[in-house]
Amino acid sequence: MAMEGYRGFLALLVSALLVGFLSVIFTLIWVLHYREGLGWDGTALEFNWHPVLVVTGFVFILGIAIIVYRLPWTWKCSKLLMKSIHAGLNTVAAILAIISLVAVFDFHNAKKIPNMYSLHSWVGLTAVILYILQLLLGFFVFLLPWAPLSLRALLMPIHVYSGLFIFGTVIATVLMGLTEKLIFALKSPAYSSLPPEGVFTNTLGLLILVFGALIFWIVTRPQWKRPKEPNSVLLQPNGGAPEGVEASVAMNFGNMDKSDSELNNEAAARKRNITLDEAGQRSTM
């Protein structure tokens, strides 16, 4: 099935991928060039894993997971395969987000810095907890064929809304974190004097913001939504018959009955023709 406005979708998709990739590259340049690199030793080098993993997993990979259903090249793939890809990308993003939290808490504990005192930390931890709950809900309700269809239909709007809400919350949290880090780290010259690191990191924040805006635009266009599969079959829980199977079976049985009756009529007609031929032959003889 052809996508309406395919060229516009392709242009936005390429733009989103480019901006998201640049966001990851800018984050790596920031921590490697301005923040002295990466490590896992309880120092600031371990803290630097936090922005790298958050931007890579919780922003870029999560954004791709949100729009994966919109890719028209995957519309011929089965819905189960796309659900598995969606769940896999979200799982990778969740793992990276958890590791980024471990890096922050290790750094704070090693340096005797208080934990969970800023708005950035409150909103960030809330987003991670909600994201894990969202991932578990999607896995047990939508990926596995256990939940009844009525429950799936009820939770689907909530699942879609909460996914977008969490993604928007992550974008806001990242922007707060960048600002907070620059205020604490840039003392001489101060952040207010627009040093090169401040300008570079502000540019990184703008890239992340643009990436989020592109993802939101792509995922909210109804003409780019994955079409429903015409021959899709949803399994009922508890070993029930698939939805729509009863009707198809009934139609097949109806067709079978009709075929049997037609065959019986044809057989009876042949018998009558054979009887008439035999009678004609006897009369001729």
TrEMBL record:
PROSITE patterns the UniProt entry points to: CYTOCHROME_B561
Domain of life: Eukaryota
Subcellular location: Apical cell membrane
EC number: 7.2.1.3
Segments forming domain Cytochrome b561: 15-220
Catalysed reaction equations from the record: Fe(3+)(out) + L-ascorbate(in) = monodehydro-L-ascorbate radical(in) + Fe(2+)(out) + H(+); monodehydro-L-ascorbate radical(out) + L-ascorbate(in) = monodehydro-L-ascorbate radical(in) + L-ascorbate(out); Cu(2+)(out) + L-ascorbate(in) = Cu(+)(out) + monodehydro-L-ascorbate radical(in) + H(+)
Main subcellular location: membrane
Membrane topology label: Multi-pass membrane protein
Region described as Disordered: spans on this chain: 264-285
Tagged with keyword Iron: yes
Cofactor: heme b
Spans traversing the lipid bilayer: 9-32, 52-73, 85-105, 125-146, 158-179, 199-219
Keywords assigned: Cell membrane, Electron transport, Heme, Iron, Membrane, Metal-binding, Oxidoreductase, Translocase, Transmembrane, Transmembrane helix, Transport
Subunit structure, as described in the record: Homodimer.
Identification of the protein by name: Plasma membrane ascorbate-dependent reductase CYBRD1
Native source organism of the sequence: Rangifer tarandus platyrhynchus (Svalbard reindeer)
Upper lineage: Eukaryota, Metazoa, Chordata, Craniata, Vertebrata
